[in-house]
Amino acid sequence: MLNRNPRIAALKAGYLFPEIARRRREFAASHPEDAARPETRIISLGVGNTTEPILPVINEGLVDGARRLARAETYTGYSDEGLAELREGISKTFYGGAFSAGEIFISDGAKCDIGRLQLLFGAGTRAAVQDPSYPVYVDGSVLIGAAGASVSDEGYAGISYLPCTAENAYFPDLDPLPPNALLYFCSPNNPTGAAADKAQLGLLVQTALKKGALIIYDAAYAEYIRDGALPKTIFEIPGAEECAVEVNSFSKPAGFTGVRLGWTVVPKALKYAGGESVNADWHRVTGTIFNGASNIAQSGGLAALTPGGLREIRELCDFYLGNARLIRGALEKLGIVCVGGDNSPYIWARFPGRDSWDVFAEILEKCRVVTTPGSGFGPSGRSFIRFSAFGHRADVEEAAGRLAKLG
Ligand SMILES: *Cc1c(COP(=O)(O)O)cnc(C)c1O
């Protein structure tokens, strides 16, 4: 039989969410009487998965997309890098028309594109991440062979972890960034909920240009930004088109986690060290291993860009931000120091001197609430818990009430 890819063996055991699910099952099995009582049934504020229905204007776009497939006059097959109308609509809606359709690539989601983008750079690449960070940046680097073989509690030897802590207000010191690195940057951040301001992103772009870094900027939560002074895209910063690609998604703003639709902006001005076009290579990679997003999903995306669709995006994000306020309020009442939840659906709560898996266990035991231990996102998350605001309002209200038991 074939040998297993050693890079898969190098992935840290117990990927975070299966491990949380296992602990939840174990807890539920040892408390069989709990599930039947409303006050002790387990509520999850753990995963970053949307819970609320897709709103009507956008949903009608999806339905219309399906209907079109049933008629010869409107039937479509492969759409390659996406419907031109959708690519132009995204440029106009989110980037002030700064990009041509050829610089916007429609995908089946941001995570999928993050995985595929790594193919552009290969095994010798030095990767750098915010610490803590969304797991696919590190795990995808492991799969591509860019993380090095050695791994410890401090992470993979081949990856530069840039700590984001209370001391630096969750924006990393960029001095340790190695030259010519692939830098993953997420804002508003998952898991910390912190959103970088213009000065911080300006510094990020300046540093990338100076050190030859290419930034993969993950803006999946941009539509959650409510502070009008905060940038919603890296391309608000001059020079970013020479050092960054941006991945984004309809998943969190429109409830498309199960529909699957995102996009990646690859500016034509972005060049490798040798002067070759990154845009041309991305065209080549997506054409080789990806055959385009669902045309039904793209029809939903078009509806999301109409005035009614954009109102629905705002309404849906406002709903989750309302959940976030309930959770953060409950934690702060106990004197627990938090960030996030104001421009993102995540709250990052600090438990100084404690291990996040112990705090996870305590919250599950006392409140019957599932959370995410910060250490699952990187070494700097060790004493933090991530609370997710994705949930039905009644569940979030119940969970927020129960958090008082931590006091
Ligand atoms: C949820 C999420 C995404 C979205 O991924 P999709 O594949 O588009 O569903 C991307 N980045 C971060 C940080 C996320 O939390």
Percent of residues in helices: 25-40%
SS-based structural class?
alpha/beta
Rounded to the nearest angstrom, the distance between the terminal CA atoms is 56 Å
Fraction of residues in β-strands: 5-15%
Helix run count: 13
Low-confidence stretches: none
Which CATH architecture of the largest domain is right?
3-Layer(aba) Sandwich
Name given to the CATH homologous superfamily of the largest domain: Type I PLP-dependent aspartate aminotransferase-like (Major domain)
Largest beta-sheet characterization: 7 strands, mixed
SSE ordering: HHEHHEHEHEEEEHEEHEHHHEEHEEEH
- What is the name of the CATH class of the largest domain? Alpha Beta
Mean pLDDT: 96
Order of strands in the sheet with most strands: 2-10-9-8-7-3-6
Helix-strand blueprint:
Layout: H1 6-9, H2 16-30, E1 43-44, H3 56-68, H4 84-95, E2 104-107, H5 110-117, E3 126-131, H6 135-144, E4 151-152, E5 155-156, E6 159-163, E7 181-186, H7 198-211, E8 214-218, E9 244-249, H8 251-254, E10 262-265, H9 278-289, H10 295-304, H11 307-333, E11 337-340, E12 346-350, H12 356-367, E13 369-370, E14 372-373, E15 384-388, H13 393-402
Parallel strand pairs: 1-13, 3-6, 3-7, 7-8, 8-9
Antiparallel strand pairs: 2-10, 4-5, 9-10, 11-12, 12-15, 14-15
Helix pairs in contact: 3-10, 11-13
Bound molecules: pyridoxal-5'-phosphate (PLP).
Pyridoxal-5'-phosphate is lined by residues 48, 109-112, 134, 186, 190, 218, 220, 249, 251-252, 257, 262.
